[in-house]
Structures are given as structure tokens and as C-alpha cells.
Amino acid sequence: MENKRFKYSTITKEKDLDALIEEIGDARVVMLGEASHGTSEYYTWRTAISRRLIEDKGFDFIAVEGDWPECYAVNRFVKGYQDSGRKIADVLEVYRRWPTWMWANWEVAALIEWIRDFNHLRKVNEKAGFYGLDVYSLWESLEQVLKYMEKHDGRAAEVARNAVRCFEPYHRDPQTYAQATAFVPTDCEDEVVQMLEQVYRRPVYPDDPEHEFSTTQNALVAVNAEKYYRAMIRGGVNSWNVRDTHMMDTLDRLLDFHGPNSKAIIWEHNTHIGDARFTDMANDGMYNIGQLAREKYGRDQVKLVGFGTYQGNVIAGRSWGAPMQKMEVPPAKEGSWEHMLHEMSTDDKIILSKDLKEVPELQSPIPHRAIGVVYDPKLEHLGNYVPTIIHERYDAFMYFDETEGVHPLHMKVRGAKEPELYPWNY
């Protein structure tokens, strides 16, 4: 469809993704964003895109903005490993850390069901995987390493126990640990690094190479989580950079593990997958996984797809750890990217960045909406818009004029006592 500003394609059915799939071409990494963590349409359309990439282009796995231990349990389920669970809803109960609705929802259940069906008759090395990229699972990852070491290497298990004991006084509360390290010149860094060294030295058990990989990954999570929480209490942007560097390192490791021709699909917030160099994040010295992947693999091998909406509702919390609510998403503010797309038409759209390069008003940064897990619609104008050069930040953008919140699985929440540690809740 031609417009006085630029060209776009309407989307109503999966066939309408053809132009996007063609634009992705032979890229090795495709990152699919979201403007919030609680919007149904983002999950549903990312699932549709991921299906096409796995079926038509041979992509090997999906890696998401979730914790490694929980996502690895889902990975074993979709690959049909022994004792990995029988019911999707039961398996998704692993997601008990606030905000549970990010991955414990019916939209993710539909994705998991499709991956499991896809994998059913395939050989082990042909099955699509599901992994977590994030760094928050300090205690869970420590427990997984200790459990493994106690089973396979009793001598090395004592090093893992030392790491666990070091963190015990902080009662599984990252904020307490981080605050303690700010005032006392001691921490658990040496203990987790020594544990990682023991993991690297352990014997290799070829019967389950993916579980071997997972053990090393949990040790790396513990090392980087400890670093992340110490950085958080000191303020500044370093904690953000520690987190996204960990995500990028995990992506690299997953690609290496799956082989030289492997391909990855990433699901994360726009603030992580959209190249930070073309936002005001760069002014603060922040970078993200989208930028790091482009720099390492090249722009032709990394395709970044942003997502956004004009209005609707979303699942979020009023503060960190607060009960989830369905909140109104008001019409986007005038002059924003979302308002511009709404003014063009109320169609849901796919816009390719190559069609934006000659549009005068898009050559400078314009406001682009971003909603985190903590949200207050009344205060949106104060901090929920990121100045962005759209056609540089993304390779394509999917716009939905009106969206609905995800459909959560209601579960008991753990880990809700961390509000001061999350200045950015993306």
C-alpha cells in the first residue's frame, strides 16, 4: 500500500508475513521484540514468525528474555527428554519468579505445544530448542550446579557448596546481598569463579551433552548474576551492560553448541533487541544484545524486528512485586512513532526499514513507546518513550493499532523483594 509518507503491508493472517520472511533472507539471527512484556498480540505473532523460520529456514532454537534454569526445563519438555513432564500447564509452573505472566501464559503454552509437536518425529539433533538468556537466577543456578556436582564429582561438589554457603546469609534476596557488598569489602565473587573453574575441569559425560552445556551455563549465570547485583547497588548503567553482555555471550554459546550453520530466534523487549546506538541509550553509555549481535555477526546476518501498539490494554504491575493487573494503554502521544502510524491508518502493519530511509521526519530521533513490567498509564508521558531513529534501530517493525493483555496462568510468586535493584524494568 502506498502512502504519502512511506510504504507498508497490512497484516491480518500468517500469509501476510511473506514480505518479512523474504526480508530476513539468509540471516543467522532474528530478534523479535515487544513494546511490553504483557501483550497477547506480540506473543502470538512472534510465534507465527518463529514457526515460519523453523519450518521454512531451518532455525534451531528460540532464546528468550527468561532465566536459564526455568527455560531449560521447558526445553527438555519440548524435546521429549525422559522425566521432563507430561502436561504443558504443569511444566510452565517452573515460572514462579515475578513477573510470572511473562512466560507462564496461554500464549506461551501454545508456542510450547507447537514446538513439541514439531519435534515429535525428529532426530535429537533436528529438534528445535527453547532457552533463557537472562541473568537473574542466581540461587536457582547455584542449586543446579551443586546438584550436578554431587552426582558426578564429589570433590568438586565441595567448591559448589562453598559458593552456596557464601550466599546463605542473604536469604535468597539479591537486594540484601548487593547492599552488603556496598559496605563490606567482601563478597562471593571468588567462590562463584572457583565453582565455574571446577565446572570447566569436570569430566565430560557424552550421554547427555545438552545437560553438560546446561551445567556450565548455570555456573556462568551465577558468576554474572553476582557481578550484576554488585553493579546494581552502585548505580549507573554498568548493570544493564553486564546483563546484555551476558545475554550476548549466551547466544554465542548456544550458536556454537548447535554448530557452525546454526540459526537463532531471540524474543526480548525492544529495548534489548533494537540497536541501542540509534536511541538515547547510547548517550548514557548503554548497549544491548541487538547492537552487540550486529557488531559481531554483521547487519546482513542479524535482523531486528520491533513491535508496537497505539492503544489497548496490557498486563503489568504498579510496582516491582505488586499484583499483576490488566491496565489501560492510552492512545500514544502526539508526535510519537505509534501516533504517526495510527494517523496513517488503523490497519495492523509491517513496515520494512528500507522503505523509511528517505522519509524526512524519520531521519532524526522520534519518541517510541516502551512499557516495562512496572507501569502506570497516568505517568506514561514521563518515561515510557525512547527517542529512536526507527529505520536504523530495526530492520522491520510490526504495528498493531489496538492490543490486548496476555492471558496469565495464575501462580504463586517468588522473588518479589527487589524493587530498588530495577531502575529499568525491561
From TrEMBL:
Source taxonomy: Bacteria, Pseudomonadati, Bacteroidota, Cytophagia, Cytophagales
Stated name of the protein: Erythromycin esterase family protein
One Pfam family it belongs to: Erythro_esteras
Species: Pontibacter aquaedesilientis
